[in-house]
């Protein structure tokens, strides 16, 4: 149970720096660089598809890609096409000390933008039990 406690505190720390109900909106590619200890990580991305305060940001216009280094996690993703609150989870073996998570708006719309509400990065050994939804970096369920 100590391991689960560590996972909870790691989660709380990351969510505190990127609050849930506030969206970060990107109109140009943006990269978060997280210092990490190299190992297999779960990366969870949280999306709340709302129309954010600026009327220019209509969520149905939001198509974007998310990648970690050369690995594409989401390609031309539109959060509205699924459900209301979305969690996307990926399992990625990180071999470097930096995890670069890049959001790239797609140019399919006149005013492309990307958004994110929360990012969570957890070392796999800290997760008890294993989550039921498990995506590899290619986006396939495995
Ligand atoms: C991650 O990659 C490293 C280097 O490629 C490898 O040695 C290690 O076994 C991998 N770990 C997992 C959990 O897949
Ligand atoms: C966002 O605004 C557009 C345009 O006003 C509207 O059609 C759409 O239903 C709104 N979507 C949400 C999730 O509120
Ligand atoms: C992450 O991005 C920084 C800044 O662009 C770069 O210096 C670093 O090499 C990148 N690391 C990885 C593992 O991609």
From TrEMBL:
Residues 1-23 form the signal peptide. It comes from the Eukaryota. Keywords: Kinase, Receptor, Signal, Transferase. InterPro entries: ANXUR1/2-like. One of its GO terms (molecular function) is transmembrane receptor protein tyrosine kinase activity. Transmembrane segments: none annotated. This is Receptor-like protein kinase FERONIA. It comes from Acorus calamus (Sweet flag). The gene is FER.
């Amino acid at each position: 149970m100590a391991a689960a406690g560590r996972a909870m505190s790691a989660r709380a720390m990351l969510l505190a720096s990127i609050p849930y109900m506030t969206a970060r909106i990107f109109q140009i590619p943006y990269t978060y660089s997280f210092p990490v200890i190299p190992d297999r990580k779960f990366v969870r991305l949280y999306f709340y598809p709302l129309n954010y305060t600026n009327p220019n940001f209509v969520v149905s216009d939001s198509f974007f890609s998310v990648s970690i280094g050369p690995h594409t996690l989401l390609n031309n993703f539109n959060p509205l096409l699924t459900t209301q609150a979305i969690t996307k989870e990926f399992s990625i073996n990180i071999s470097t000390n930096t995890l670069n998570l890049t959001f790239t708006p797609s140019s399919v719309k006149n005013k492309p933008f990307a958004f994110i509400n929360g990012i969570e990065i957890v070392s796999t050994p800290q997760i008890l039990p294993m989550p039921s939804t498990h995506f590899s970096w290619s986006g396939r369920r495995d």
